[in-house]
Amino acid sequence: MGRLHTAGGIREIGKKYDFHTAKRLGQNFLTDMSVVDQIVESSEAGPRDLVIEIGPGMGVLTVQAAGAAGKVAAIEVDAKLLPILRETLAPYPNVVVIHEDVLKTDLPALIERERTLPDGMPAEQVRILGNLPYYITTPILMKLLEDRVGVQSITIMVQKEVAMRIAAPPGSRTYGALSVAVQYFCEIDYVVTVPKESFFPKPKVDSAVIHLRLRAKPPVELLSEKLFFECVKKGFGQRRKTLHNALTGICDLDKEATGKLLQDCGIDPIRRAETLSLEEFAALANRLA
Hints:
38% of the residues lie in helices and 18% in strands. It is α/β, with parallel strands linked by helices and 289 residues long.
């Protein structure tokens, strides 16, 4: 285990198994054990929980999660990492490695299949954690949220810029469609910034750990969730445009009708989407419904 969180150890294991990191898979392995500990601690995983780990790599986070949770199901897309994981995780009977692409995985079915803990009892809660590849962070996160996979929390390492966007408040430069979507589904904790020196190979940018608690109930009342996200998508589709211009055409509204829609909702037509709260987007969607 000790060699998993050092550059030398990663090189040694890579040489033993003829493994080379793949840029196309965004493979940057975490080498700072304090960050590993923070990810597991902030995930709130307990001995009666099932943890789904996305992208275990060589298993450094998996090992720590196995010590905290009742069971870990680790989803790994790279077949070349499987023999390494077999060695790394051999001492942990409560870990199962699943060779799949998470974007193509039926997560509700996987959770149902893996929910039984080693003692034969069902897991009380399900939590997701992982060090996500930068290039597919948003698709993975939106799949987890939109598929409503039935988990209590998601604790992930992402590019720092993405973490800032997710947590951004209305009116800030980084607030956008991703901010609205994640804040609609989750309560967000920004856990820690992780410098690029904490990885091997070293990426070009810093990362951050965020903890997302899935809401039992959305923060706004909606007549149509579909319309809500259509308003968000169209509003942010051309960020520099005023809402009057950006939303024209939604539900086949012409410019005059769009202006009336905004006025009826108490929204100045010259505002831009990045200034709207979730409540204001909800007001627009409910007026259209």
